[in-house]
């Protein structure tokens, strides 16, 4: 049985990855979470770990000796990255360096999957859409810049120290249980509140003209498990649906599933200092390497996310 370690497992993706690995029945699973986080899951070993603590990182790796490490720990919010750039750089860049330095000290080579972001491409040229892995990076926010840096360091460490690293640029992922700091989850939450009579029948939106590439989190974790097994060492893969949908289209879809008539109100406070107009992945490299395609339609994802909030507001 392979030993899988998930770092940052209490987050959105981590919880789905745990369930996916369990369902495959070929892994012994260890996960880490921050002390303040809750993580309920039977049949797995759970440790507290702040990735900023270099000694703790080495201790856990030495103890577990994982074959595979899924590095999910991050400050993952673009909005928060504007408010707190230092924290974003600390966790995403310094945290990743702590992990890679600890791996260098081991007497064997685990394989690590490092998760970057489609945001790294930023202001891609029209002719670069859909975006291939080798496209020039033009990050448009602090979170994106931190992930560019993380993946560059991953590439450098893999070459310089011969570490077994596979890197990902994950485009927007969505699904039930996602924090409402992310747009699709927030719209579903607002609709669920309205349906329960807990909010006015108006939904507040920011810039809904931008187009993004959305993938269901359950498809994303399937891709991660295949990539850690079959991805090429030192290489980077886009993980997305390959389609770009406007936030407005998503909102229309959510509203069409609501039992109430809801109006839209543009709230300038929800606009970001800068917004990239379109992000869409070219996923041919991913498809060729792991023979993967998304299985969840955007309609299904929205329905499940809306139902999650209907039960949880
Ligand atoms: O801040 P929290 O309590 O949500 O904890 C997050 C955790 N985390 C840390 N773990 C260890 N040491 C730290 N210093 C530290 N700071 C934060 O990482 C959270 O539980 C987890 C990241 O999960 P999410 O924010 O829910 O991100 P998600 O959507 O699961 O994305 C996974 C990866 C990230 O690298 C994203 O940047 C990328 O996929 O899109």
What topology emerges from the helices and strands here?
Blueprint: E1 2-7, H1 12-24, E2 27-33, E3 45-48, H2 54-64, E4 68-71, H3 78-83, H4 85-104, E5 111-117, H5 142-160, E6 164-170, E7 173-174, H6 183-195, E8 202-205, E9 211-212, E10 215-216, H7 217-230, E11 236-239, E12 245-246, H8 247-256, E13 263-266, H9 284-290, H10 298-312
Parallel strand pairs: 1-2, 1-4, 2-3, 4-5, 5-6, 6-11, 7-10, 8-13
Antiparallel strand pairs: 9-12
Task: Please tell me about this protein's structure.
The protein is α/β, with parallel strands linked by helices. The chain contains ten helices and 13 strands. It folds into two domains: 208 residues, 3-Layer(aba) Sandwich (Rossmann fold), CATH 3.40.50.720; 81 residues, Alpha-Beta Complex (UDP-galactose 4-epimerase, domain 1). Helix content is 41%, strand content 18%. The chain is globular. It binds ligand A2R. The site of ligand A2R has 22 residues, from helix 1, helix 4 and strand 5.
Which regions contain 5 or more consecutive residues with pLDDT less than 50?
none
**Cα-to-Cα separation, first versus last residue:** 40 Å
Question: What does the largest sheet look like?
Answer: 7 strands, parallel
Structural class: alpha/beta
How much helical structure, as a percent, in the residues? 40-55%
Proportion of β residues?
Answer: 15-25%
Q: What is the CATH fold-level name of the largest domain?
A: Rossmann fold
Which distinct ligands sit in these coordinates?
Answer: ligand A2R
Shape: globular
- What CATH first level of the largest domain would be assigned? Alpha Beta
- Number of strand segments: 13
**Cα gyration radius (Å):** 19 Å
Please give the CATH architecture of the largest domain.
3-Layer(aba) Sandwich
Quickly count the domains: 2
Give the H and E element order: EHEEHEHHEHEEHEEEHEEHEHH
Number of helices: 10
Q: What name goes with the CATH superfamily of the largest domain?
A: NAD(P)-binding Rossmann-like Domain
Task: Compute the average pLDDT.
Answer: 94
